Amino acid sequence: MYDLGLDIGGTTMKLGIFRGGELIRVDRAPTPKDPNQVVNEIARMVAPFDYEAFGIATAGTVNREKKALSDLGGNISGWQGYGLGEALAKRGIRLDVLENDINCALVGEMDNRRDDHVLYVGMGTGIGGAFYSGGELYLGSRGSAMEIGHIVVEKGGVLCACGQRGCAEGYFSARAFHGLMKAAGYERGDDFLASNEASAQAFIDGAADYLIGLENVLNPSAILIGGGMITYAPSIVARLKAAMLRRGNGNVRAPLEPARLGNDGGMVGAMLLAKKERRGRENHL
Ligand SMILES: [Zn+2]
């Protein structure tokens, strides 16, 4: 018997196949453009496996009860409000949990930690956040808490996909970093960060100030940096930490660490949440 964790990304879907908690295999497929095609692809991917628990991590905010995407949706057009759990059920596929991908990534990290009040900052195409506090994910009143990519950091700045101007993800995401690096003529992220380029220094200082704000609000025991950024430029964690300590007030400790699971966190967390959900249900029988 297997447990399954699927991460639906903007470009790739990754299915993690677990046995006894161990990841034994990862199957990949391009993410189709249409939600119905996504369901067909999921059906094809999970068909070979006799599974106990099945969880899905997705971009965007979710309606946990309905196992549906919320109106904010994700990267797939027509994904807003899509009833993924119901569509899968019609195909005879039982889904235990649908959860936001950054929340899943943090749950994956927490499996190996003993501390509490842990902040996850996913620096990828955008910036996603998750916060683990009091032994559980902090979800907020409508379940869409920790949308830290949409904190305005520049008044009247670049227009964000969310409709606001000057959102943090327009400036401090891996995508924004990549644009600055290419414009300065660098191929490797760490080379760009080590350079004397004004745009590299401005990126570090700006991202450090942004993280200082988050630390001042949340007082986390650890800030885990995940997403494509730590693959592009592994030195970013040490550089941000130094800049935070240099620029922050006396309360700032900058407890930055790279996320341990890298890009596998979403799959691992989705599987763990699905197992927890099934255990909870069995206890109620
Ligand atoms: Zn925004």
Automatic annotation (TrEMBL):
Alphabetical list of InterPro entries matching this protein: ATPase_NBD, ROK
Domain of life, source organism: Bacteria
Family: Belongs to the ROK (NagC/XylR) family.
Name this polypeptide is given: ROK family protein
Organism per entry: Aedoeadaptatus acetigenes
